[in-house]
Amino acid sequence: MPKKRKYPLIIFILIALALVAWAVFGAYGFVFSEEINLKGVRQISADARLGNGVEYVLGPKDVDLTFTAEQIEKAREVFFLRTGGIKGAEYYSDAARGTVTVILPSTGDSVTDVSRLAGQGKPYALKAVIADYETDEDGHYEITEVKETIFESDGLKDVRVSSGTYSGSAYYSVFLDLTDEASAKLAEVTERVYAEAKAKAEAEAEAADAETPEVSENPEVSENPEVSETGEDAAELPNVKDKTDVTVPEQCYFVTIDGVVYQRYTFTGKSEVKTLSLGSYSDSTTAAVLYTMLQIGPLPFEFEQKSVNYITPAYGDLLPALGIALAAAAVIGLVVLICYARAAGFLTGLIWLAECSLLFIVYGICGRIYTLASVLTFAVFIVISFAVAFVILRKLKGEYQKGKTVEGSAVFVFEAVKPAVRTVGYGAAILGVLLLFFNDVCIDLGTIAITAGAAMLLGYIYVAKSMIISSQAFKCFRKPGLFKSSKEVE
Asked: Is the pTM of this model over 0.70?
């Protein structure tokens, strides 16, 4: 017979209550540098609502631009990454019209809503180029002609930001880590360009020397030669021309973003570097935006907002109603289990609520939205897991009424239901893994299915059994009985 210990029941109840509290009231904080913000069931209608959102339609800024379906789909992926931290966002591409539609939840401020994607249409295409340039009156470089492109955005292996202080002020530096191919191309181009510039400078120096008339080393002596300060005849000294010094013009290359010069680098030969500094900024937001855009990669071309419109709920008030209904169903289900099996019903029901809460928490941490398909999947899991919990309680109560002890009933019943629970749990997890390879909606459902399968396997094969057995270490659960009320015992 399994040894009865008090601590499993206490630990499991505390964990279950913590999960339920987290799901209901939410949690906010930081784990290392990652922000955790789970609002909880109280905000389910706000997070789930597809309506009261803002629809942004973006298209090419150049109306005469020709584009491909692949470019439009690439643009949709980039917009998804650039605004990926916004809960409730939806993204659609229309290759025929060349547009990308982004739907974001409303902030409640019309000015903020309209300008929310302002500036997001810039490509952020990075290039390192050899170019002719001019300097304006403010000292800024303006490229007049690009002679050669060294590498582009795909030449970046990583983008990093470091912070520091100088004279009491904070600054943020952005660094570009180059791929091996980009670094090799940079070394090859700088070596070649400098060699060409040096050869040209030497040729010009030789030409200048050739144009200067040479004076004979043995000129004829005049009848009245001039005498130098040393007393020697000037005519007898050789007149040798000095060679022109070779000066190689300053060579440089530029890193540009969307054609704007962000940094100028000079070189005097082969430049073998793996990392480039893109500059330092006093504003952390500027550095963060630059870092994010370069990490994500560029848009195929520049986009602009074609329209911004408020939209109505796609399902009316169905989603908020379903969210409230699911919360109510969870409470009613717990009451039913308690009425059916008393203390055992409470313990099993608490595990059932913990499973549902864990599913909600994992889903919320993943940043997924509550679509109609997601809410319905939640409902299916709640019904299935409740049915499993009720069947287990029914079998436990039946074995107990046959005269078995609580411990004996638990061992027998959980061994009997283990194959069925494993079939449902592993089946849900495998289905979830398969769904991850499809579109965004299927990823949502796959996340739910994997978490649901794992929660059922853990909750109904191990935790529930341990809690029932551990409960017998407490007198309050042994008398009047785990499955009976005081009147039933009498």
From this structure: no
